[in-house]
Amino acid sequence: MNTRFNAKSVSMIGALVAMEVIAARFFTIHTWNLKIGFSFVPIVVAAIFYGPLAAGIVAAVGDIISAVLFPVGAFFPGFTVTAFFTGIIFGIFLRKSTSVKNIVCAVLIVQLVGSQLINTFWISFLYGSPFGALFVTRIYQTAAMCVVQIGFTILMAKKLVPVLRKSILVEGVS
Prior knowledge:
Layout: H1 7-26, E1 28-30, E2 35-37, H2 40-50, H3 52-69, H4 77-94, H5 100-127, H6 131-166
Antiparallel strand pairs: 1-2
Helix pairs in contact: 1-2, 1-3, 2-3, 2-4, 2-6, 3-4, 4-5, 5-6
């Protein structure tokens, strides 16, 4: 990993954590077994500019802070592990290239493995619900989030990332 953590990058990562918490609280629909929202946006930005570790930190710390400040259900560290996994995957795929292929691959891995398989297992474990029944009900969420994440990430890669690269906030980040 080529990312150096300096005062500027740490402060930007902190700001992205704050944005993730706000997005998770105010721009997400939560039920006990479904979550549809935009909290992935700051994680993707961290992945593109700072790489896998930073994106994993944004996702995991954001998850912990959101769970403490705005609980939807019981805090469970398994979801934090999945959040960290999400950041790592986005970072691996998007740090060097935000091509459509990389975006689609990252989103499909995050949604199919992280959300559909791992988080469904965590929910089944926590609430004692049958895995198979939960898996089926969560397919719609996964499909919806694939479309949302792919669309917004492509849009961000084309419109937002070039603007941020030129701004003072991320000056010197390649």
